[in-house]
Amino acid sequence: TQEMCCGTDMWQACRHAHLWQAGCEADLCQTGAKPKPTCCKPKATCASPKATDAVPAPKSLYERLGGEAAIKAVVAKFVARAASNEKVNFFRKGTDKEWKPGEGDVAKLQEHLVNLVGSLTGGPQKYTGREMKTIHKGMKITKAEFGAIAADLSATLKEFKVPQKEHDELIGIVATTAKDIVEE
Predict the structure, then answer these.
(1) Residue of higher predicted confidence among 15 and 117
(2) 40 φ, ψ to 5°?
(3) Helices 143-159 and 164-175, packing angle to 10 deg
(4) Which residues contact residue 144 at a Cβ distance below 8 angstroms, ignoring those fewer than 6 apart?
């Protein structure tokens, strides 16, 4: 067995650290030889893994974006940019859903967007707003407008020097909402 031939500690340490070389198990188990350090890749030990040796879990997109404070800053700039974009009918003038924001309405929109982004990227936020399809129904948002808003978000992320990988991940998440927002 693996425990008898290779030694439990070595087997677990190498498997846990993803350093196991395919031929190692067969060579040791067939020959009955004692484990050799060459069984693991360089600098790996054949002792039991310690808690400090554990490979850290990858960071969520939320963490890589900088958490809540960074997302709030991006959202505030993004909303201002989208509201002033001539390619976007941000306030939905001429539709049944015209928006005339009163006191606190822009802050409420930003809060919803922060919660939405946070919940979609692995943050602790919970989005409690209405479903995308429900809230955007009747706004008559076109593909061109959705694209312009996505470009506004992209420009904002670049302005905040968000790394390309995180930029692309977030834009990809936003793109999945088009089916519920665009009414063309």
Answers:
(1) 117
(2) -105, 160
(3) 160
(4) 87
Q: Which backbone phi and psi does 33 adopt, to 5 degrees?
A: -70, 155
Report residue 70 as tokens: 């960074």
CB 117 within 8 A of CB 72: no
Convert the pLDDT of each residue in 146-181 to its tens digit. 999 999 999 999 999 999 999 999 999 999 999 999
Contact 77, 86 (CB under 8 A): no
Domains of the chain: 2-53 (no CATH), 61-181 (1.10.490.10)
Contacts of residues 132-140 at CB distance under 8 Å and 24 or more positions apart, as own/partner, are 132/177, 132/180, 132/181, 133/180, 133/181, 136/180, 136/181, 136/183, 137/183, 138/95, 138/96, 138/97, 138/183, 139/92, 139/95, 139/97, 139/181, 139/183, 140/92, 140/95, 140/97, 140/183
**Which pLDDT band holds residue 56 (cuts at 50, 70, 90)?**
confident
Cα three-residue angle 94-184-90, rounded to 5 degrees: 40
CA atoms within 13 A on the CB side of 43: 1
